[in-house]
Amino acid sequence: MTSATPKTPEVVRAEDLAFGYPGRPVLRGVDLSIRTGELVALIGLNGCGKSTFLKLAAGLLTPSGGRVLLDGDDVARLSRRTAARRVALLHQSAPSVPGLTVRQLVRQGRYATRGPLGMLREGDDEVTSRALADVGVTAWADRPVDALSGGERQRVRLAMALAQDAPVLFLDEPTTYLDLRHQLEVLQTVVRLRAERRLTVVMVLHDLNHAARFADRIVALREGRVAADGPPAEVVNRRLLAEVLGVDGRVGIDDEGGWPVCYPDHPLDPLRLLRNENHIH
Amino acid sequence: MTLVDTAPDPAHRARRALRAPGVRMGGLALLVAAVACAGLFAGRGVTPEGVRAVLLGVGDDPTAEHIVLQLRLPRMLVALVAGACLGVAGLVLQSALRNPLAGPEVTGVTPGAVLGAVTATGLGLAGWESPTAVVVAACVGGFAGAGLLWLLAGRDRGDPEQTAVYGVLVSAVLAGLTAVVLLVAPGELGSVVQWLIGSTEGRVWQHWNLLWPWAAFWGAAAWLLAGPLTLLRCGDEQAAAAGLATGRGRGAALVCAVALTAGAVSAVGALGFVGLLVPHLALAVFGADLRVTLPGAALLGAAVVCGADTVAQLLSPLLATAFDADRLTLPVGALTTCVGAGLLMVVARRRADER
């Protein structure tokens, strides 16, 4: 909240963004503007369009309506390479690649900046090494990725995204499948790097408490629309729990940190959710 | 994981050196050279002493000179380059399709190329005396075979097992069509059978002159795609996020793979399992960085095909004696297919264990 002053230029801007598959709309007109240096958490139920939003904003999907401006340019018109130099996206999951070592995988993040014949340029090895150090995996650089645990692998994939050296970082559920300790490790790494490099970070999180604690701003999606948008202290309340996440619960304040803390109690009847059409803002 | 790096002892350093790709590549190159020499010495008609005399230039037997320099040498070179083509084509296919069960033989490329070559020969458009037409026909057939698989596999393209099943189907259909062509136009049946099984019999300098520039061009093109191919192995989503236009990269890779396969098929026919299994060997030896592993697959393919050819020639006299048929020769394709089928079972088992 301290780093994101309203005057900073916006780096990502979604205008009436829509996307869907035949018979199944996913995003139904999302307007969202993200300023340089912000750390935004995207929350919402499964299937509400969080991952789709990230893929559209990174130019990996073509919207069926509206557009996304990345540094002022329509991302759908950028080449894959140019887009990858501006935004790095860490996908939810990735297939294993037999035989690839940690350093080799992380170096793949340099693809977008390579020369015409795919040759590494000067400095690529340094950026790769820095990315390995950023997430603390330098010691395993020569081990095969397949031999790592899930938490270790996630950190390596984060390093691959960091090796893209893009000013904007999208993370799609970076903590899913990780134990609590590794979840905190990944989130704290992101918070630290964002401060050090002045990165703009948008991450999909399922744990509202993590979102409330680590993000400057929470954007809640519900049925393909923005249902709530603001700093955690303003947005996280019982209505958000009920209407966006579909649970009944209580919200308190952390004694030491001052951020909101939720205590979800039980899931709400889905029928009641459907009847509740008005959106909160 | 050790946090403190201990000073490497000499034995450790020696082991590290052995693991360096350059050392392995050098060792493999020596192996290829050894296999190639063995290929020159194996076979009927000339004694090893005779071969040595010809190679050292001290022989005075024109027959031996003809056999070694006009028959065995081009045959050995063609075997080496065809093997290299198949090894690289297989690795490119497996990487581009992210499918360890892919190979030119099981993705419709090889059977398509054979169908193209056989049809062109049957129609009188091509023959052993016009190898260029055979290459063109094999290329067209190879693309058609791969395209057929692409259409048939439809939405299952991303699924290695499903694609492999469709690949078997496509291969069977193409083999059936080849058989039909053979029935309708049996004119050059003798030479056609060599394409079906894969043989290096009777390859002469003309084949070599046509094959090596083709292989060099497409091999270099495949190597330039090492970066995109390594990324494609990481999965489409990750590759696209890192800045690769996946469709274009995959398309270029497939063109290289089909061209390399067609070149090999038009030179030595459908050598079974080389393109499917050499990549696994190459990945095991050289790791997943394709800038190193693609040349490695070329050397391994060359060693495997040339080695199999040598072994086939050594086995032929034994078989001839056993079956009391002195003109019997074992085609190299029969050997690679038998050995390859066994190795494929090992690969399939290991893959099943991994999951």
UniProtKB/TrEMBL annotation, chain A:
Listed Pfam families: ABC_tran
Keyword Membrane belongs to the record: yes
Alphabetically ordered keywords of this record: ATP-binding, Cell membrane, Ion transport, Iron, Iron transport, Membrane, Nucleotide-binding, Transport
SUPFAM superfamilies, alphabetized: P-loop containing nucleoside triphosphate hydrolases (SSF52540)
Membrane topology: Peripheral membrane protein
Protein's cellular compartments: Cell membrane
InterPro entries linked to this entry: AAA+_ATPase (IPR003593), ABC_transporter-like_ATP-bd (IPR003439), ABC_transporter-like_CS (IPR017871), P-loop_NTPase (IPR027417), Siderophore_ABC-ATPase (IPR051535)
Domain ABC transporter, residue spans: 12-248
GO MF entry, a single one: ATP binding
Protein name: ABC transporter ATP-binding protein
Organism: Streptomyces durocortorensis
TrEMBL record, chain B:
CDD domains reported for this sequence: TM_ABC_iron-siderophores_like (cd06550)
Keywords: Cell membrane, Membrane, Transmembrane, Transmembrane helix, Transport
Chief location: membrane
Protein's membrane topology: Multi-pass membrane protein
One Pfam entry name: FecCD
Location within or outside the cell: Cell membrane
Cited InterPro entries: ABC_BtuC-like, ABC_transptr_permease_BtuC
TM ranges: 22-42, 76-97, 109-128, 134-152, 164-185, 211-232, 252-278, 328-348
Record family assignment: Belongs to the binding-protein-dependent transport system permease family. FecCD subfamily.
Protein name (record): Iron ABC transporter permease
Source organism of the structure: Streptomyces durocortorensis
